[in-house]
């Protein structure tokens, strides 16, 4: 029977209060989509599976978003043909979102070090303006 109210086995669900990081995440994902930059929201944590056993997913300390930005390098072969570059590569960019006073955990710092050691970009972002300036 549908009541129009979201419910669980324990009763009606309460609306969740959105965190500053959650609001920034929505804003960043919308901005990336508007700029035609392919991006994925990354999840990590533990949930109880159907059997009741915990199911772990993601990597501890993993950044909130993984974006793939196209970068062109080289010189124009033919200026009359837009996009006629010698090379085009895709740069994986991990984006960690933080509230204005938020700090990275030790696991997040470790993840950042691993990402950067593999030649990928890692951005710590506190506002959409910061993202626009760094991306």
- Taking all residues together, what is the mean pLDDT? 83
Strand content: 25-35%
Rg measurement, Å: 20 Å
Order of helices and strands: EEHEEEEEHEH
Total individual domains: 1
Tell me the span between the first and last alpha carbons: 48 Å
Total helix count? 3
Question: How many strands, which pairing sense, and closed or not: the largest β-sheet?
Answer: 4 strands, mixed
Q: Uncertain runs with pLDDT below 50, 5 residues or more?
A: none
- Oligomer status: single chain
Question: What structural category do the secondary elements indicate?
Answer: alpha+beta
Strands of the largest sheet, in order across it?
3-6-7-8
Name of the level-1 CATH class: Alpha Beta
By CATH, the architecture is named 3-Layer(aba) Sandwich
- Amount of helix: 25-40%
Q: Strand tally, please?
A: 8
Summary?
The protein is an alpha+beta fold.
Descriptive overview:
The relative contact order is 0.17. This protein has a single domain (18-134), classed as Trna Endonuclease, Chain: A, domain 1. The protein is of the alpha+beta class. Strands 3-6-7-8 form a 4-stranded mixed β-sheet. Strands 1-2 form a two-stranded antiparallel sheet. It has a two-stranded antiparallel sheet with strand order 4-5. Helices cover 25% and strands 34% of the residues. The chain has helices at 20-34, 106-117, 128-134, and strands at residues 7-8, 11-12, 38-41, 45-48, 54-57, 65-76, 85-97, 121-125.
